[in-house]
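Tutorial, part two.
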Amino acid sequence: MKIINNSINFKSFTVIGFISILIFIFKWFFSYYFFKDDLSIKIIFDSPSDGFFYYVYLEALSSLNFNNSFDVNIDNLKNIPIPFYAILIPSILHSLFGNYSILVSELICIYLFLFIFFLIFKKLNFGFFYSILASLLLIVIPSIINLFDLNLITYFNNINNIFNLRFPRPLITNIFFYLFIFYLIRLNFNYFFNKQNFIILGILFALTFSSFYYFFFIQLISFIIIIFYKFDLKTLLNKKNLKLYLISIFTFIFLSLPFIFFLLSSEPDYKERLYIIDLNIEKKIILIKYLISKLISLKFLLIFISISILNYMANKKKYFNYEKINIFYILLISSILAPFFFILISNQTGLVYHFTNLITLLLFIYIYIFIINFFVKKFKKKSFKKEFLFYFFIVILVSLYNLNIYKSFLLKNSDEEYVNYRKGIYNSTTFIKNIKSDKINLLTFDPRLMVWGIMNGVKNIRPISGQLVPKKHFMIEDDLIYSFKYLNLSSNSFIKFLENKKSDWRLFNANTQLFFWGRYSASLLKTFNNSENFSKTELEIINKTSPLNVQSIAIPKEELNRLINKFNNYSFKENLSLDIIALDKREAIFKSISIDSHFYCQELSTDIIKIFINKKFNKLCKKKF
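Running the prediction step on this input gives:
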């Protein structure tokens, strides 16, 4: 059977499908092998990084409830700003399949990633064999980097953003961007000016704008560069073509309306907690100066100049696929220009470091495409005599990918503290599921248990992370103080809970981040109310913290004093009969809690998670689940 096949046929779909299943299935096999909890726990604990936090958007869109406070005493809130198209299809799947929708989404996105890059490489005339392997290698490279601990190198660490299973970014958002790249690669510019092309453009721009706007700006700039590179001004300003631009703009605006609605109707305090910062002239200058300093660094200049020389030589000698490789070079240039363009035109900004991470990503993609293109040109005429060699390489690459997955689960399972923590959360959820979850009043400071509660119908959760609900700041504060008072914790414990801490290169307190996130961002770019009222040491750290690293967090003294005064003056009235309390014993302040032992039992506690259950559920409490 001939392996090198230039057509997209049934074999292409089935081979990519087979590879996708092999990449997808072992993660869940290892999860079930090492941990005996259920799927509702696995999708939270085995989601890469903090991806589980964004399941709240999934739940909101699938239930069409965008302002849930998870507090029976609070309603009529504004909405949370949902990244609409990144969540749309998963939310439909969630409505159909429940928790299994996370697995279905992963499998679909793995398949789409491989298939899109397979089509890209086919457009580069790589043929079937090389297109499959080049696509697979691209998804496996981050695993190879992790296996050999190369992720400790800064640039290599960012390569993980090519594609991984973190929800919804890059799992879904990157798929939209790669679709745009494929669209550029397949374009026939001799027949460019037609309605179909400009409708597709409007769709692709809307998908990224409403999911991860950083990609949108790169796409917009790259498209402008390409059309000015390909066409003269007279052609671009032709009246018929101007109509096509309007069609594309109308398509974009129409499809972006849901996302625009959520932006306009969302809670301002919530957006502040998401690190949305107002940009004045002074802050724009700070960001632009910092970006320029990074771009003129010797390390970056050497890499970029080397790539530019390679690209120039490829064009001069009309090297194999040079015109299509130019598209990747233009995308790289666009990623460099995008943050400057965005900062200049926008009055607000979010996490600017995403722009710099995308520069690294597109640097790597360009280098990868160039090297693979060189390799294919050299060996394309040599065909494999035996088909098993093709499958042998597939097995090797898939094995490397799954070896990295196995390594991560092995490390988790060998960490006794992690195992006890996971078991404690599982015990809490097992109890909740054995009674009506919508009647449960839950008190926890654990983010995973909060998200689990939201995903599984718990109606009352106190306190709750500021990223999970569109409550106003004072409501988050009230919930936090109420919970401390309920547990008979002192103001000293409250101070300890929120105190500023030094963590590696920044000031950071995980508790402050959990409840207030970007409100107390502290860097060269921004502090709370532009305060400088920090200790001398804290101020020195803040002034050395990059303006891109807005996830550095510190509360100024006057604001901490306000919170302490609010705590001391808070009139505590027990207006909620709690059913279950789950606390992490690694947090020192929880060692001093005082709860009536006649009211709560602790049968399900572990070494890490202390679980108190209302004795009205005494039979369930003593039951071994």
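Residues 1-6 have pLDDT under 50 and may be disordered. In part three we will examine how such features are distributed along the chain.
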